[in-house]
Amino acid sequence: MTEAEQRLLELLKTRSFRRAAPGEHFTLTSGEKSEYFIDGKMTAVSSAGAELIGEVLYQWTKDFQINAIGGLQVGAVPLVTSAVISYQRHGQPIEGFWVREEVKSHGTKKQIEGALQKGMRVAIVDDVFTKGGSALKAAQAAREFGCEVVLVLALVDRLRGARALFREHGIENYHRVFTIRQFGIDVPDDLPENK
């Protein structure tokens, strides 16, 4: 683990990770109930978190020869912003983009915001994968636009099926910086998505 990853993990633990009170639970985007929740935005909107996220995403994606990095709004917006700033600092300009849940009904009526072009190699990022549905929506929109999705990457994987979902949709390059185990949550090893 790099120094930036270690510092980011500590920030995620203190700013983003929460356990529910006894007898209570959180409802996740996937609809599942959980005894814990990771709100990555709480880290992404801090100055230290934004800088670390940008550097970590840069380090994890720089060898894939991508032209753009993006994800589903709203969660991916601060991650993408941090990443493109880090790319610029490393002397490698790159495009950022995000995908709307639905096509805008006004203005340019776009589903994808940013200067994405057909044929670009793109990375899809998200703060947390549970089932992977948000990242998959962004990947599908980028593919439909005419881009090649070369990887999907989460800051944290809850180990609840994202890998299997991406494989089912032909996305083999799936990565995560951290897993939920690094937050003290025990996940059985025998689940297919954890192998």
What does this structure look like?
- The model has no long low-confidence stretch (mean pLDDT 92).
- The radius of gyration is 16 Å and the shape is globular.
- It is 34% helix and 25% strand.
- The two termini are 20 Å apart.
- It has one domain: Rossmann fold (3-Layer(aba) Sandwich), CATH 3.40.50.2020.
- It is built from six helices and ten strands.
- The strands form three sheets. The chain has a six-stranded mixed beta sheet with strand order 7-6-5-8-9-10, sandwiched between helices.
- By secondary structure, it is α/β, with parallel strands linked by helices.
Topology of this structure?
Elements: H1 3-16, E1 17-19, E2 26-27, E3 33-34, E4 36-38, H2 41-44, H3 47-61, E5 68-72, H4 76-89, E6 95-99, E7 112-114, E8 121-129, H5 133-145, E9 148-157, H6 162-168, E10 174-179
Parallel strand pairs: 5-6, 5-8, 8-9, 9-10
Antiparallel strand pairs: 1-4, 2-3, 6-7
Helix pairs in contact: 1-3, 3-4
